[in-house]
Amino acid sequence: MSTKTLFSLFVAPAKAGSQPSRRGCVSTVAVIWLATLALTSPPASWAQGYNVTLLDFPSAIDTFARGINDRGIVVGGYALPAAPFRGFVYNRVFSDFVVSGSTQDTQAWAINNVGHIVGRFQPDGQDVKGFFYDGTFTTIDFPGATRTEALGINERGQVVGAYSTDATHGFLYSEGTFFAIDVPGSRATFVFDINSSGDLVGVYDDDSRRHGFVYRHGVYEEVSVPGSNETIPTSINEAGEVAGYTTDSEGKTVGFIFSHGAFVFLDLPEANRSTRIFRVNARGQVVGDIDLGIRGFVATPIHGRGAPGS
């Protein structure tokens, strides 16, 4: 395998905050995003012409969207006051989603087009484990790991994520078999998504800093917004478009989509400091959160496909 530079993961966990509960659950706004992040090349623009649905699970203090399939069904998690995280499925209305026996934590991270869901949960008195749901919950637990998180799934049912032993490693779980993934020369590797071609996105740490990457055709390609402190690629769709979020030198975080050699950035006006994208589907819809999980969102292109490069 070789490495080349193309275009830097730490996903800060959503934390229960002290914001008051919001009523109404869902609100929709048409948004034009404004630019504050200074960039050089490659070409960049600020997204215009998306409808944004803000997601607030009823009575929750935090709501974070993590996955969306091509049918527009969203998965994620939420926090009630003084309670563990619980998962949700959103298909115009919210449905609670909790792994049986998970008394401490459930978070849904990804959903494919047949409705299979993956994520993480914590059984009472045990370490965090991944799960796969197809009507029945199956635990995903890398052999010998102290922690396993399932973070992405493709249309072939292949699952990717991260596990911990003495260090953190990425993994691919396919047809009942685990495959460890470590970027050459890395101290830690996280894998966040996989498409049906087997392309991967994630992050790795080396001795100097954290880097984002795309892995395709046997090659690791670095992902980095010029001028940013950190670039976090979290999703890759069937067309190979990469989405995630990036932070500038002043700590401002915005979402991005990288397509056809150009970055497009999203910064919701409701966000104080951060807009993070966690998934992009084939229709160009993106989901994520603002201000580290205070509110979730779905952004849908107004004019048809509407994704970058269309």
Overview of the structural elements:
The chain has no helices and 27 strands. The chain has 310 residues and is mainly β. It has a single domain (2-301), classed as Neuraminidase. The strands form six sheets. Strands 1-20-19-18-17 form a five-stranded mixed beta sheet, with no helix packed on it. It has a five-stranded antiparallel beta sheet with strand order 2-4-27-26-25, with no helix packed on it. It is globular, with a radius of gyration of 18 Å.
In the sheet with the most strands, the strands line up as 1-20-19-18-17
Please name the fourth-level CATH homologous superfamily.
TolB, C-terminal domain
- As for the CATH topology, it is Neuraminidase
Tell me, briefly, the overall form. Answer: globular
CATH architecture: 6 Propeller
Number of strands: 27
Q: What is the helix content?
A: under 10%
- Tally of DSSP helical segments: 0
Structural class: mainly beta
What's the structural domain tally? Answer: 1
| Oligomer class | single chain
The proportion of residues in beta strands is over 45%
Mean pLDDT: 84
First and last CA, distance: 31 Å
| Radius of gyration over C-alpha positions, nearest whole angstrom | 18 Å
Q: SSE order in H/E notation?
A: EEEEEEEEEEEEEEEEEEEEEEEEEEE
Low-pLDDT ranges: 1-25, 27-43, 306-310
Question: What is the top-level CATH class?
Answer: Mainly Beta
- Main sheet characteristics: 5 strands, mixed
